[in-house]
Amino acid sequence: MLSADSDMYSVVVFPPESDDSDGEEEVEAVPSVWLSPGRTHCRWPPFRSQEAIGRAITTRMLPAENWHVYTAKLKGKGMYGKCYLLLVETNAQAYARHFVC
Fold first, then answer.
1. Helix, strand, or coil here: 39?
2. Other Cβ atoms closer than 10 A to 18
3. Nearest 5°: CA angle at 99, between 94 and 101?
4. For range 59-74, the mean pLDDT
5. What was the pLDDT predicted at 84?
6. Number of domains within the chain
7. Cβ pair 45, 28 in contact under 8 A
8. Helix (H, G, I), strand (E, B) or coil at 20
9. CA distances from 3 to 6, 7, 44, 92, 95 (A)
10. Within 13 Å, how many C-alpha atoms sit on residue 99's CB side?
11. Whole-Å CA distances, 89 to 28, 30, 75, 76
């Protein structure tokens, strides 16, 4: 059985938002605590800088009431290293779809 620490992070896919200019889905590794109980939504910090967002992810900051809530699809979960590899793989597959002849 896995310990609670083994599922500290999740890789989630955010579908394109209706106001998203490029219409692309986003994939990110986030602390599992950011997911809703049903794992269908993810909270996202309102920070503007990538540095602040990265720090919130790596320190597993607890979400606050003022955080945005987005629809998300769970792609995988585990320790950060495993999730980072899945994130890279998922982004590479999405990138490759744009260059299919």
1. coil
2. 6
3. 130
4. 95
5. 73
6. 1
7. no
8. coil
9. 5, 8, 25, 30, 34
10. 5
11. 11, 16, 11, 12
> Which helix H or strand E contains 30, and what residues bound it?
strand 26-31
**Distance in angstroms (rounded) separating the CA atoms of residues 93 and 86:** 11
Enclosing domain of residue 87: 4-97
For 28, phi then psi, to 5°, come to -150, 150
pLDDT digits (tens, 9 = 90+) for 30-61: 999 999 999 999 999 999 999 999 999 989 99
pLDDT for 94 equals 58
Cβ burial 73-87 (10 Å sphere, 16+ → b, else e): eebbbbeeebbeebb
pLDDT for position 99: 44
- Dmax (CA) of the chain: 45
**Confidence band, pLDDT 50/70/90 cuts, at residue 24:** confident
Instruction: State the Cα–Cα distance between residues 67 and 60, nearest whole angstrom.
Output: 14
